[in-house]
Design goal:
Elements: H1 2-30, H2 34-53, H3 55-71, H4 75-102, H5 104-111, H6 117-130, H7 133-149, H8 154-158, H9 161-172, H10 180-205, H11 219-250, H12 256-291, H13 295-322, H14 324-332, H15 339-353, H16 356-370, H17 376-399, H18 404-428, H19 436-462, H20 468-489
Helix pairs in contact: 1-9, 1-12, 2-3, 2-6, 2-7, 2-10, 2-11, 2-12, 3-4, 3-7, 3-11, 3-12, 4-7, 5-6, 6-10, 7-10, 9-10, 11-17, 12-13, 12-15, 12-16, 12-18, 13-15, 13-16, 13-19, 14-15, 14-20, 15-18, 16-18, 17-18, 19-20
């Protein structure tokens, strides 16, 4: 399992690196203002609808069933099931694309009520360019799930790089477009085409195909849609929170949506590379083990994943709390994105960081239920957390006057509420067991995180006055030394066995 995690994390890290280059170029060319806010709202559409109809539903509703068929050697039945689900997915996406294109002005008016005039018209135009990315990427999402189910993880982790590279290319050539926002939007669509071609090639190498057909009803499809309905509600609940962020941010000072996006991109680095990678590897493994009757092995894999998720994410929490302003200024305070905007983004990053471990643990704990084909329980937990999330944001932003940082803090605390609800239910049903290997690793993870944060702060203090980039480099070196020293001293308590 550890070897699979390294594969996913490695390619995801590459994706985050190209993503940073893309985001730095976005900040450089568009800054923090009308044009950048318009693009990030338009970019929200394919990304968040993908979370509803893509990974957010395909992984929990489709992957466990497909993986169970593969684990039992029923390859023909697995292929037939995949084709049936693909047919229904494509039919739904074609209808959604047509409706979204036709009614985009009304959707933007609802989503960003604070936009008007030129900003509103630009957002509508950009959203019509970016939205077709959704139908392209959903093919890649389903083929990725199929590859993960047969323990082929590299391609599913690698294909997201192509969108970043496409956007970098169009942003470099932005003078050929009406403005940089149009260049970025066309880069999104071009990236979707590149991702589709790549994943079709990767699937074909493993003998996996998705064959277009007319949607047909069957008992398997009915079972999928029962699960899909519950998962969609849960995924939609998760996506509602960012939409609420967009609505609230449109009512805050211009540039708030841009600051929120860039801070979240830094927060997503450890979450995507480490936290989500663990969940990606865990779900098919638990599903396959349970299909073979190995409940104990499934639980051990889950405990090892949770321990590793905390070991790998907690150091970032302490670092984001210790030096958030230095991080955001060093990465983004260039070109049109000034130091004041970067410092504000640092406050948002610190707030996001509080919820980082919970965002990783949610996927791991939810696998307890998804691997058993139970999609209703995670849905109920997610809806509960989402309601709390929205209430907290309203209190933080306007009740306590925290502004855009209050949006991030509401997201962070909402993630912890989700973890708490799922853990309580899992323990009460005797489905979730906290094993000794997790308890042994927890103190080491906390100590390593403390050493990392202290080292990062010391690195910034040592090179204060020498510029933010130099200070960040020193923070990374000092924090890394502290983290490595703790791991070396207590490596015997850590679940680092390669399997």
């Amino acid at each position: 399992m550890f070897r699979k995690l390294l594969s996913v994390s490695g390619f995801t890290l590459l994706s985050r690196i190209t993503g940073f280059a893309r985001d730095a170029l976005l900040a450089w060319t568009m800054g923090k203002g009308l044009m950048s806010d318009a693009f990030f709202v338009a970019f929200l559409f394919p990304n968040n609808f993908r979370a509803i109809f893509g990974e957010g539903t395909i992984n929990p509703a489709f992957l466990p069933r497909y993986a169970a068929l593969q684990a039992r050697g029923e390859k023909a039945a697995a292929a037939q099931f995949a084709d049936a689900i693909f047919a229904w997915q494509m039919a739904a996406q074609i209808v959604l694309l047509a409706l979204a294109t036709l009614f985009m002005p009304q959707v933007i008016r609802l989503l960003a009520p604070g936009f008007d005039g030129e900003q509103f018209r630009l957002t509508v135009a950009l959203a019509r360019i970016t939205f077709p990315y959704l139908i392209l990427t959903l093919v890649a999402v389903q083929l990725s799930a199929m590859l993960n189910a047969i323990d082929k993880f590299w391609a599913a982790a690698a294909w997201s790089n192509l969108q970043n590279l496409a956007m970098i290319a169009t942003l470099v050539a932005w003078h050929w477009f009406p403005n940089a926002a149009y260049a970025a939007a066309w880069g999104v669509l071009l990236g979707g085409v590149a991702q589709l071609v790549f994943i079709l090639w990767a699937g074909a190498r493993e003998g996996l195909w998705l064959r277009p057909a007319w949607p047909r009803w069957s008992p398997q499809v009915k079972e999928f849609f029962v699960a899909f309905g519950a998962v969609t509600i849960g995924a939609a609940s998760v996506v509602i929170a960012p939409f609420i962020d967009t609505i609230i941010a449109s009512l805050l000072p211009t540039g708030s949506r841009t600051v929120l996006y860039l801070a979240d991109r830094i927060n997503q680095l450890p979450l995507g590379v480490l936290g989500i990678a663990v969940g990606t590897v865990l779900l098919p493994e638990m599903s396959a083990r349970l299909a073979k009757g190995d409940a104990r092995g499934s639980s051990t894999a889950q405990n090892r994943s949770a321990a590793m998720a905390l070991l790998l994410t907690l150091p970032f929490v302490f670092t984001f709390l210790a030096i958030p302003g230095t991080i955001m200024r060093a990465v983004f305070a260039h070109g049109a994105f000034d130091r004041q905007a970067a410092s504000l983004a640092g406050q948002v990053l610190a707030a996001y960081g509080i919820g980082l471990p919970a965002m990783a643990l949610v996927r791991i704990i939810a696998s307890t239920f998804y691997a058993r084909h139970d999609t209703m329980t995670p849905m109920r937990a997610t809806v509960t957390a989402m309601i709390c999330n929205i209430v907290l944001k309203l209190v933080f932003v306007w009740g306590l006057g925290l502004g855009v940082a209050g949006l991030a803090l509401g997201t962070a605390l909402g993630a912890w509420i989700n973890v708490g609800v799922l853990t309580f239910i899992g323990k009460s049903r005797a489905l979730l067991a906290i094993e000794q290997l997790f308890l042994r690793a927890l103190p080491v993870s906390l100590l390593a995180a403390l050493a990392t944060g202290a080292g990062a702060w010391a690195g910034v203090w040592l090179l204060r006055g020498h510029g933010d980039i130099a200070a960040l480099v020193a923070a990374i070196l000092c924090g890394g030394l502290g983290y490595g020293a703790v791991l070396l001293l207590f490596r015997g308590r850590l679940p680092l066995r390669i399997a």
